[in-house]
């Protein structure tokens, strides 16, 4: 992306820009969801889009997740490109049949007769007291059902570039936007065609001593931990896979071959999370490069408490990541 | 020539074609039944015997560009919409000649987007929201197409019925719902499934018309569907058409139906639409020729399907993604 003009945008504005650009580029692209139009979204992400594109292309739905996802599936089968928002990623479960059966399997069951270019925008993770049913990180569910692509942008630039790729992709995409990142600003390259490809991990910090694979909000926390450890002479290499399906294991494995150690960090519950899959693949494919077992950090096996202080105790913080990296380095 | 009064939108040539379709679908159903009896296949074949008239008549009320989502009982909808018996039998027997290229064996996912046959979900009632979605696409694109969603009385219990109904009514989507009320949700009679006798009563909750017709009378079904399709195409929103019909066979072919005490001779179809349509054709011998042609077409297509190849094992990894 060298040489491009950059603008400082928040993660939310970057997503908004991606939506607007793609709707301008292709009139088959349209949106729906609860409160996405007149209100501009519960998190303000879709502000201004109904004004520009009208109430036919930016549709406020009833409180109706099975229709939001199932209707998007039908509209995709009929030649349009729907981008739909569930207000919280947790509502994947209220539209479970539509997400895990219809989006994921319709093409396969019908022998490839149909396209399913649906992007499902899913505000994910802790937001500060939203409670057990509005705070989960459910990306592993998307990984476990073949037919779905799974995306987790950690920066404004990735949010924009990955969303544009998602909208242009012919397969259904679960796009997990972290609610805690919406206000975070970062440099975003200008240009309608600046896409971030799927299946290409980002090495966000190079380092020789230990590979940290982190996703979503944890990418920033891993970078903070890396800075802290650098003062102690430990150099973490931080890798953000950016997409879990497809998953760029090659970049991760190449890193582990150099560092000999790997720590996987995510906000989702540790048990059977995405980290379990990544750790297992590292063990299977880079076992002889390892100087220590692959470790995982994730949320405790508990629902997220509603209290904003208690909820933070459930997910990994910077100290926990730094502590785990220090211990793993010493093994 | 017939002297019967035909409903608006159906001329004598249309009536002849409707008869041809109905007797072909009937012959196809009976051929499948024979196959089940001969080779034991069919735990997932849900016969539509007796419901052919309403299926073909409702489809006859559509235009070729319109789309349908079918219910799981029968192949009549797909055949009436233009899919060949080779494709349908190929799917049913799991052959490469099927529309799903060998993936849809047993339980069926016939599909042909070009013909507007939009497929079927394995979870009952999932078609309501997808059908509302294709109707949204038509509204967005202004393509003038109408979507018809077929379903059984059992499927009407799903929450998707309400969620699609509510949104489709609010947005006045170009959509028609055709309920084939055969009185049974697998083993549960309608009286245990619905507090009202008519599913069509539910239309009132969405402020759309609910119409009840005799599903064994193809002309009545055609008339109701024709009006509903016209209304949808004119931007006036969805209509719920309920066709009262009968489940002649089990939930699936081979179901012994110990839960039923109303069973009669399976070869007798009460209020059978076939002789009813036949009587309308008049007495010029054409019906005999159509009957004979249908039987021959079915036998030949079924033999071709039986002789066709099973898919290569590599098919299991195909079509997961758009690029493979």
UniProtKB/TrEMBL annotation, chain B:
Drop me one GO molecular function for this one. Answer: magnesium ion binding
Q: Name one GO biological process term.
A: pyruvate decarboxylation to acetyl-CoA
Q: Which SUPFAM superfamilies match?
A: Thiamin diphosphate-binding fold (THDP-binding) (SSF52518)
Keyword presence, Oxidoreductase: yes
Question: Does the entry feature the keyword Oxidoreductase, yes or no?
Answer: yes
Q: Which UniProt keywords apply?
A: Oxidoreductase, Thiamine pyrophosphate
The EC code for this enzyme is 1.1.1.-
Please provide an example of a Pfam family that matches this protein in its UniProt record. Answer: E1_dh
Which cofactors are reported in the record for this sequence? thiamine diphosphate
- Class of this enzyme: oxidoreductase
- Indicate the segments forming the Dehydrogenase E1 component domain, all copies: 21-313
The name on file for this protein is Acetoin:2,6-dichlorophenolindophenol oxidoreductase subunit alpha
Recorded source organism is: Capillimicrobium parvum
Q: What lineage is on file?
A: Bacteria, Bacillati, Actinomycetota, Thermoleophilia, Solirubrobacterales
Name the encoding gene, please.
acoA_8
